[in-house]
Protein: Nicotinate phosphoribosyltransferase
Organism: Halochromatium glycolicum
Amino acid sequence: MIPTTGLLLTDLYELAMLEAYFASDMEDEAVFEFFVRELPVGYGYLVAAGIEDVAELVEHARFTDAELDWMTKSGRFGAAFVDRLRDFRFTGSLDAMPEGTLFFPDEPVLRITAPLAQAQLLETRIINLLQYPILIATKGSRCATAAAGKQLVDFGLRRAHGAEAGLLAARACYLGGFDGTSTVLAAPRYGIPIYGTMAHSFIEAHDDELAAFEHFALARPEGLVLLIDTYDTEAAARKLLGLAPRLAERGTAIQAVRIDSGDLAEHARRVRRILDAGGRSEIRIFASGGLDEHQLQALLDAGAPIDGFGVGSKLDTSADAPYLDCAYKLMEYGGRPRRKHSEDKSTWPGRKQVVRRFDENGKMAGDQIQLAEEPVQDEGEALLQPIIQQGRRIGRLGTLEEARARRSDQVARLPSALRRLDAEPSYPVSASDSVRELAREADAFIKQQRNPGQRELKRLNR
Amino acid sequence: MIPTTGLLLTDLYELAMLEAYFASDMEDEAVFEFFVRELPVGYGYLVAAGIEDVAELVEHARFTDAELDWMTKSGRFGAAFVDRLRDFRFTGSLDAMPEGTLFFPDEPVLRITAPLAQAQLLETRIINLLQYPILIATKGSRCATAAAGKQLVDFGLRRAHGAEAGLLAARACYLGGFDGTSTVLAAPRYGIPIYGTMAHSFIEAHDDELAAFEHFALARPEGLVLLIDTYDTEAAARKLLGLAPRLAERGTAIQAVRIDSGDLAEHARRVRRILDAGGRSEIRIFASGGLDEHQLQALLDAGAPIDGFGVGSKLDTSADAPYLDCAYKLMEYGGRPRRKHSEDKSTWPGRKQVVRRFDENGKMAGDQIQLAEEPVQDEGEALLQPIIQQGRRIGRLGTLEEARARRSDQVARLPSALRRLDAEPSYPVSASDSVRELAREADAFIKQQRNPGQRELKRLNR
C-alpha cells in the first residue's frame, strides 16, 4: 500500500544540494558521522542498532526508472542532473559500531566516507534508520534490566507509528533483551520468537467466559495462555481450577494466565493465591497494560508474583523519549575538518574512532574519541568496524543473536550506576589531543567566515 | 527492504483467535468500533485521519501464497485453518467519519461490521493505521492554529519512526493544515507540495559561505532559500545584501533565508533589520529547529518577524503525546451488545453513530452518541458515513484536499476555547437513552459472568 523504500524517501534539500554539488564539480571525499548529542533524561547509555538496515541501504542505493521519470516530469530538476543519477552508486565506505554496542553522547556510531554527493544523499534515511532502532533497543535494554529475568514480550505493533516502526521495534527490543514479540511478521522477517494469547473480544464474543477458555484451549492447545480480566479476574481464576483437570485429560496444560487491567500487583497476588490453593502453582502469571520499565521495576519491587510482561505502547513509541537529539554531520571535506559554529552545541570535527578501555575486572572504564588514524593505545578496543569499502561489504555485521548477546554482555560490564533507570550521565568520554587540535583548526576557519576578510569583501563589492 | 504490508503484519493472537473461532463455528456478525478514550493533555479535539488507508486494507485483505506457506511451515497453525485462509475476503461493511472530521473521546470514528473472524483479524493494523495519522493530523491542526497563517512545512522524516511514519506524517499534517513537506516521496505518492532548502553541510563543504550561497543559487534558482546560521547569522545576512544584486542580474531572486539555531526570535529581528536596511524587505524569514505548536505561538506572540516554519521531530513523533489511549473494541456479536467489565474505564456497547448539532451561528454545539438505528433528530449531522458494504466500496471517501478543507472548516466552527493549545476538555458529548439502556443490558450479562450461576457451576463440576 505504501512504498517505503527508494531514494525519493528523502528530504527535497538532499536532491537540491546534489544538483548544486554536481554543477560545482564538488566531488571530493566527504566524511559524515552519525552521533547523539545528549542522553534522554534518566538514561545512562544507548544501544547501537539499525546498522544492518543502513548497510543494506548504502550497498543497494539506486534510482529506479520510475523515480527518475517522476523527477523529470516534476519539472523541479535539470535534465543533466536526473541523467547523472541514473548511474548513482555508493562507492565509498561505511564504518560502524556493531549492533548491541553501548555508546554515549558525542561518540560517532556510524561513519560514511564517500564522494560528497553520495554521503549527502543518504543523510535523511540513515538518520531515520538509526534513531528509532537505537531508541527501542535502549528501551528494551532498560526493560530487561527492570524485569530482572522475567519474560518480556513486545505487544506494541498497534500503537507503533506505522508498519515499519512496528517491525523495527520488534527486532530492536529483541536485540535489547526482550524474549520476543507478538508481531507475526517478525518471525519470517527476523527469526524472532513470537507469542500470542487472546483478546477481550474473544471472551466477549462468547456467551460464557468458561466456554471461551475451553474453545480456545481445544483449538490452540500449545503454550496456552488465558486472559482472565474480562469480567472478574479472580472469578475467572477460580473457573480455571475447574477447567484445568478437564483439559489435562486431553493432554492440554494451562501455561499461564494474563491480567491486562486494574491493579496488576494486587490482582496477581490474589490470582497467585487462588491458583496455589487450587494446586495449580505451575500456572504462570503474565501481566500487560500500559507498562514501561519504571512500572516493571515498581511491580517487581512490590513483590508482585508476575512471571512475564507484555510491553506495548510505551515501548514501541519510546514514549518518554520519542526522539533523540542526534545528527549526521559533515566532519571533513577535501581533507579539511568541518564544523558549524554553534551558540549552544559543538561537534568534534574530523574522521573519528571511539576507543574503549576496561578495568582489571573487565568493567567499562571510559571511552576516548580520537582520530581514526591515531593508534589504539593501552589495550583499548576500537568500536567502529569497517563494514563497507569501495561500495562492497567487507565486514561481517554479525547476526541478530550476536548483537543481542553483545548488548547483554556490555550491560553487565557497565558501571552499575549507569544501569539504573534514573541514571545520571557519568560515563567518562574524553576527546584526544588530536581531535581538540582539529576543532581549533575548524574554529579558525569559522572565525574567518564570521568576520569576512579582504578576499570576501572584494567579492562582495566587485 | 522491509515488507510492511500483508496480513501477517498483525499480532499472533489475532490468528490464534481466528483458528479458535473457525473451530467453534463462530461466524456470526460482529461489530467492532475504533474510538479514543481520552484527549491528550491540553488538546481540545482530535482530527479523523487514516480512514483511506484502512479502507484500502479492508477492501484488499488477502493472504498471499508466501504468507500461507510460512504459516504452514511454522508448525503453529492447523492445516485446515491455513487452508481456509486461502479464501479469506472481507465481505462486511465499513462506516467511518470522513477524514478531517473533528471528534472527541468515546465517539466511534470507524465501525467494522462483518463475520467475527474478518473483523477480528484486521484489528491490529486498523489501530496502527488510524492512531498515528490522527495524532499527526491533530498536531498539524494545532500548529496551524498557532502559526496563524504563516507557512508551515513538515521537516520530520529523519526523526519519524521509520519510513511509513514519515510518509503518513507528511500526508496527515498536510490534512491538518500544513502547506507541505520536505519529504520528496510525498509528492508522487500523495500530490503534496514539497519544499527544500539546504543543509549546514552544504555550506560547510564550501571554503567560503558566500560561494556556497552563489553555487546553490546558480544550480537551483527557483524558490531560492538560503540557510544563514552556519557561522554567523547576521554576518551571513549582510553577505546576502552583496549577493542579491548579482543574482538579480541573472534573473534570480532570494526568496527567503532560513535560521535553524540560536534564539530564533532575536536572530529573526536582527536579520529583518539588516535585510530591510539593505532594501531587501521582500526576502522572507523562515525558521526551524526543535519547534512545536507551543514554540510557534510563543515566537509569534513575541512579535518575531518570521514568515514560515519548518517543524520536524516534535511533529513527526507527536512528542508530547506519542500515542493515544485508543481501542478497536467488540461492540456487538450475534445481535447482543458486548463490553468488558472495567475498574476504571467503560465503553458504550452496540453499533453506534455520532450525531453533531450546530447552533444558529453554525458553531458546533454538541454531539450525541446514539445507536446506528436511531433516527437523526433536530437537524443533526450523522458523522459516520458508509464506505464499504458487502466488501465493496460504495461511499466516496473524498480527496485529501477535501479532507484538508473539512478540517479547516470544522476548526473554524469549534468553540474557540477548544482551539487553544492548553484547552480543557469541555465539548459536550452525550449518550442517548438507547445506548445507556444497552449498556445496562451488557452489564447484566457481565454480572452473571462475575458470579457464575447454576448452569456454569454444573459445567465446572460435571
About this structure: DSSP finds 17 helices and 19 strands in chain A. Chain A has two domains: 12-136+321-455, 197-288. Residues 173 and 282 of chain A are 28 Å apart (CA to CA). The mean pLDDT of chain A is 94.
